[in-house]
Design brief:
The complex is a heterodimer of chains A (107) and B (397).
Chain A lengths: L8 E2 L7 E4 L8 E4 L2 E4 L9 E3 L8 E4 L2 E6 L8 E2 L4 E2 L9 H7 L4
Antiparallel strand pairs in A: 1-2, 2-5, 3-4, 5-8, 6-7, 7-9
Chain B lengths: L1 E5 L5 E2 L3 E6 L5 H8 L7 E5 L7 H11 L4 E8 L7 H10 L3 E6 H4 L2 H20 L4 E3 L5 E6 L10 H14 L3 E5 L8 H5 L5 H21 L6 H5 L5 H9 L7 E5 L9 E5 L16 H10 L4 E6 L12 E5 L2 H7 L5 E2 L1 H4 L5 H15 L6 H4 L24
Parallel strand pairs in B: 3-4, 3-5, 5-6, 8-9, 8-12, 9-11, 10-11, 12-13, 13-14
Antiparallel strand pairs in B: 1-2, 1-7
Helix pairs in contact in B: 1-5, 2-11, 6-14
Classes of the chains: A mainly beta (107), B alpha/beta (397).
Chain lengths: 107, 397
């Protein structure tokens, strides 16, 4: 039920198990995700995804009603869904998320 | 009402640019120096850096030098490179355009070549500036679309809004081209279902399967680190967002770089090389894709960005559609359309789609894009290899 979900989270398709942030949600905020209270451990930037419900390791991630990859770990309802817990079913994702933590942001 | 420059082949251009084309990197500096005094006067530098022959690059240069937005061509050769400059000059001459080839080794070096090149351009610019325009209809347009610097907003606002604009332009009879089969991975089945014939549907699916194999060999998808920073997690997710640029029209054909759509409708441009993996990544950056869309005749290119690209292109205007409202506020000077309003509930997809369509038509009424105003004329062309398209790729309408 989207009525029980923070209105900064967009459900693109009924079949989806992720929601998309249409505005930044700040660390420390407690928000509702399908009726569940979730306290944000970190900022969720605009355009990022969080789990609409609990997702088991190996489950398909569904967005726009289509599979966009598989969970590499169990994901709790309301948790950030991204490169740390999802992999492509086609080609691996190249990103700098790990090295940024190692070297600093560069700014 | 749009007006265009009528060319001998019947196509019309919305710009009247002089192209300076270098035929090997060794001639690039001379080409750039020739063009510098004319940087505010529609003189654009394009070229191919390689010294070895490549039929893809020669086709690309032929199509670009005879593009409807181009009025005259100056070729700059060092003299010893393998590029078939004789054939290129002949094709440009046969298209009814003025062409001159400067061979630096024969002319006597850098200074003399620059002087000779500038004299040619001064003369051509005067002729082109006096050229009459003729009325031009939306049905005579070819429009491409690309996305770059995508993020989690691109597939929700900018790309579907560009898709609405494509639907309106196709409805008006224009030819619209979407591309990057490497960014359609995961969408092959739903895309194939939109083909006007089952055989074309199979060709569309095969082109995406080829892209998936090609990128798998390279070890990376068509995916940059900034895509992940912007919330995109996998190539499939990026693909679903990118696919929205194609709108909802039936797909009339599959073309390859340099193929010009035979009539109005929606076309997929297959940008991934055929055969074994040979020359590296299919598109080393966004401008490689933009150059290919222009080589297919695109008068203008819709460029949807979330992270915030600033690029334009030589030859055809690039319309920048910003999907992300935070990026728009930071980089408004570079953006033609603010599609982030959709995310903030201030505009609908249809409203932004109409706005994009109107910006396209405005280019034929004397208006210019932000990237043109800022002097962006990026261009890149590298090695690739393609087989010609098969008979199922362009079914008769």
């Amino acid at each position: 039920m989207s009525g029980d979900t923070d209105r900064r989270l967009l459900l693109l398709d009924e079949a989806d198990n992720v929601l998309v942030a249409i505005a930044r949600i700040r660390a420390g905020e407690t928000i509702r995700v399908e009726g569940v209270a979730v306290t944000m451990p970190a900022d969720l930037p605009l355009g990022h995804k969080l789990a609409r419900r609990a997702i088991a390791a190996g489950d398909r991630i569904v967005k726009y009603g289509a599979p966009i990859g598989s969970a590499t770990a169990a994901i709790a309802a309301g948790a950030h869904v991204h490169v740390h817990n999802v992999k492509s079913d086609y080609t691996p994702t190249y990103h700098l998320e790990d090295v940024r933590a190692e070297y600093g942001s560069g700014t | 009402m749009m007006r265009g420059y009528l060319r001998a082949d019947g196509r019309k251009g919305i710009r009247n640019t002089v192209v300076v084309g270098y035929l090997v990197e060794c001639a690039h500096h001379v080409a750039r120096e020739i063009a510098i005094p004319f940087r505010e006067h529609d003189v654009h530098v394009i070229g191919f850096p390689g010294c070895y022959p490549n039929s893809y690059a020669e086709t690309m240069m032929q199509r670009l030098c005879t593009h409807p937005n181009v009025g005259a061509v100056l070729l700059v050769s060092l003299g010893c490179e393998s590029f078939n400059k004789y054939k290129l000059a002949q094709i440009v001459r046969d298209s009814g355009r003025a062409v001159e080839t400067i061979v630096i080794q024969a002319t006597g070096g850098t200074r003399k070549s620059i002087a000779e090149g500038r004299a040619f351009i001064t003369a051509q610019r005067a002729l082109l500036d006096a050229m009459e325009t003729v009325p031009m209809a939306a049905s005579e347009l070819v429009i491409g679309t690309v996305c770059g610097g995508s993020d989690g907003t691109s597939g929700i606002t900018g790309n579907p809004a560009a898709g609405r604009a494509f639907d309106m332009l196709v409805e008006a009879g224009a030819a619209c081209i979407f591309e990057e089969t490497g960014e359609l991975i995961g969408c092959e089945q739903i895309m194939a279902d939109r083909a006007i014939t089952p055989d074309l549907g199979r060709e569309l699916e095969a082109s995406v399967a080829k892209a998936a194999r090609y990128y798998a060999t390279l070890g990376y998808g068509s995916f940059a680190a900034g895509n992940a920073e912007g919330g995109l997690t996998t190539i499939e997710e990026k693909s679903m967002g990118a696919y929205a640029k194609s709108g909802a029209a039936p797909i009339s054909g599959l073309i390859k770089p340099g193929d010009i759509p035979p009539r109005g409708g929606l076309y997929l441009l297959d940008v991934v090389p055929d055969g074994e993996v040979r020359f590296g990544f299919p598109n080393i950056n966004d401008n490689a894709e933009i150059a290919e869309l222009i080589a297919c005749g695109s008068h203008a290119v819709l460029f949807v960005t979330g992270r915030g690209s600033v690029v334009g292109s030589a030859i055809s205007p690039v319309i920048k559609i910003c999907a992300n409202p935070e990026t728009y506020r930071r980089m408004a000077d570079d953006m033609d359309v603010d599609a982030g309003r959709i995310m903030e509930g201030e505009a609908s997809l249809d409203e932004v789609g109409r706005e994009i369509r109107d910006v396209v038509l405005g280019l034929g009424e004397g208006r210019r894009t932000k990237s043109e105003e800022l002097g962006h004329q990026e261009f890149i062309l590298t090695y690739k290899s393609f087989e010609p398209i098969g008979p199922a790729c362009l079914p008769a309408a």
